[in-house]
Design brief:
- The structure is a homodimer of 346-residue chains.
- With 346 residues, chain A is an alpha/beta fold.
- Chain A folds into 3 domains: 44 residues, lambda repressor-like DNA-binding domains (434 Repressor (Amino-terminal Domain), Orthogonal Bundle); 128 residues, Rossmann fold (3-Layer(aba) Sandwich); 131 residues, 3-Layer(aba) Sandwich (Rossmann fold), CATH 3.40.50.2300.
- Helix content of chain A is 43%, strand content 16%.
- Chain A is built from 12 helices and 12 strands.
- Chain A has a 6-stranded parallel β-sheet with strand order 2-1-3-4-5-11, with helices on both faces.
- In chain A, helix 1 packs across helix 2 and helix 2 packs across helix 3.
- The N terminus of chain A is likely disordered.
- The interface between A and B is large, with 54 and 54 residues.
- Chain B binds a DNA duplex (30 and 30 nucleotides) through helix 2 and helix 4.
Chain lengths: 346, 346
DNA sequence: GTCGGATATGACATCGTTCCCACATCGGAT
DNA sequence: ATCCGATGTGGGAACGATGTCATATCCGAC
């Protein structure tokens, strides 16, 4: 609490490199060299500096450093919806990997809105982040960030394949796996619940579904492909409609965990038996799927790893800005639980 | 792609305020005034500047600005585990509120480790964030950050009540609510699953449990209070032990969603009926609790709002650094589902 | 015709770092 | 004695923004 020296150190001004220099009786340059390890600093002097720094509780100003060096140690992470366990886990993976590589993570939840996404992107440009990983809602983000010279990695889905790096999962394979599983059990009327087919995820999963049907010698019935909105409420509503209607399917493949939740709730409300009346398989293995009874079969993706891999890719990209862009595809696997069985006998 | 002027603008250097100034034919000062709106700028000039800035795609460097102004527009958010829906939702709430108030969010997952927490805290000091909200693992963070003059808000649990702000929920009330509910149904052997009782959350929930027992005229049996580890696996193991043992309880109150999951799984594995053989109520209403059947009764906290409120509190604190510290307590409510009923007849 | 306020703009120091350069000292070789 | 490389250290100019201050011009009032 005692005020020291002539400068109004007063209550508490953060110590700067200058304060450390004075305390150690050397110049700012020397302190910088001693602390960063770049350039000469005699053993005894280095020790003195380190001691002074520790004593003052000196923490170098990342802003000033970044400004001078023109490279930041922060990466931006843009995800659609942290409340969805998929994105939360992806962010968790990114966080761990970022920490391990010495990056801090600037995160924004873009709420599936293109506007929030642009705003966030601009903030990241202002912060001069070293790179960004994003689950894009449009092609605008990647374009915008790239135009500002910021490396981008698109995760989960891609809008700018070819011009930016991507880390995705085997959507087509996964969808085929899930659908084939149903076909193999003898189902012939298999519905697909999907939110959009413009994004790569939706498109690929739809394709995988169709491929599996074709491979099983089934003709695809467009009436069985339900374009749902992105939320549980809408999915549930549409599932109720479909399951109440005539000629209902004997199995449903839900293209993501949110849609699966809607379908699951609808099934429960209608008092239908799973898998007795209807089989259900989901893309993306959310925690609840292993908690409910019967457990829901699902295509599991290593979401945590998806985030971690994206940060690794970004790190490499930052090191080699001019290298050709790469899309990494992570494998998925089908987790069979109790929600899938033979269709009911006629 | 054409190189312009004498300076090596070359491929792409980010435009600075100087570039805008030259393009608009004015000085840097004028550009600054025109863009920030602080100080004079004639209508025509302002327009010219804005146009030049837009044309160049100029985005002010937040680093330089922060360095000069000595105040940043970033807040730090430190959470224990993004994979836990509780923390994910808290982060989501913080994110939305941060965006609304014009802050960017620097987030770190501290993995329940004190070491990661300190590291992250130091990074936040280096970044000169305007403030930090944290779900603390120890008292060290708040102390450390405060000593560097950074405002802190502790969320969910408090280690530094009195000296820093806090935003928590009515833990004691909630636990009493849950336990009383069981007592009211006629249960006399009610187990408590809890991970630790050093943190305020654990302590208060334990107290609430005890109070409810006392109010119901029951004597607390220490053998019914299970100190579990923090993960599902351990909780499950201990639940198996207890439920297999003699004289098992007729009801369990799990002090958080992770413990509840362990207990739920154990019950399922043992083939016990809920609520026929055993009633279950949880603190913290995780998504799966409304998905499973029977639904799990739970003390619901508005977790999203918890994060949002913390950011609001932080914002106020930043504005008034010297004001007395405040602890905000959010209300909880008991959501009754089907996992709680009268104890089995003897 | 000069004064003074309003209106506008630019020069320049500054924030906390880094790092290029100049410079100092020293021991040993010529 | 002089020169040289090796070993250290400090001075000072950046980085990109802001904001204070000085200054320039104009207009109307005395």
């Amino acid at each position: 609490m005692t005020t020291e020296g002539r400068a109004p150190l007063g209550r508490s001004r953060r110590p700067t490199i200058k304060d450390v220099a004075e305390a150690a009786g050397v110049s700012r340059s020397t302190v910088s060299r001693a602390l960063t390890g770049r350039g000469y600093a005699a053993g005894e002097v280095r020790e003195r500096v380190l001691r002074a720094a520790a004593e003052l509780g000196y923490v170098p100003d990342a802003m000033a450093r970044t400004l001078k060096q023109q490279v930041s140690r922060s990466v931006g992470v843009l995800v659609s919806d942290l409340r969805n366990p998929f994105y939360a886990e992806l962010a968790a993976g990114a966080s761990r990997e970022a920490r391990e590589r010495g990056y801090t993570m600037v995160l924004a939840d873009t709420s599936l809105s293109a506007e929030a996404e642009s705003e966030a992107a601009e903030a990241l440009v202002a912060l001069r982040v070293a790179g960004v990983i994003v689950t894009p809602n449009s092609s605008a983000v990647s374009t915008y960030l790239s135009s500002h010279g910021i490396p981008v990695v698109e995760v989960d889905r891609q809008f700018a394949a070819g011009s930016t790096d991507g880390v995705v999962v085997g959507n087509r394979v996964g969808a085929r796996l899930a659908t084939s599983h149903l076909v193999g059990l003898g189902h012939r009327r298999i519905a697909l619940f999907i939110d959009e087919t413009d994004w790569t995820t939706g498109y690929e999963r739809h394709q995988g579904y169709l491929e599996a049907l074709a491979a099983g010698g089934l003709t695809a019935d467009p009436g069985l492909v339900v374009s749902s909105g992105w939320d549980v409420a809408d999915s549930r509503r549409r599932a109720l409609d479909m399951l109440r209607g005539p000629d209902r399917p004997t199995a449903v493949f839900a293209a993501n965990n949110v849609l699966a939740e809607g379908v699951w709730r609808a099934i429960g409300e209608l008092g239908l038996g799973v898998p007795g009346d209807i089989s259900l398989v989901a893309f993306d293995d959310a925690p609840w799927m292993s908690m409910v009874s019967p457990g829901v079969s699902a295509v599991a993706q290593d979401t945590f790893n998806l985030g971690a891999t994206a940060v690794r890719r970004l790190h490499e990209r930052i090191a080699l800005p001019e290298a050709d862009s790469v899309t990494t595809v992570l494998n998925v696997r089908l987790v069979e639980r109790e929600s899938t069985a033979h269709p009911p006998a006629l």
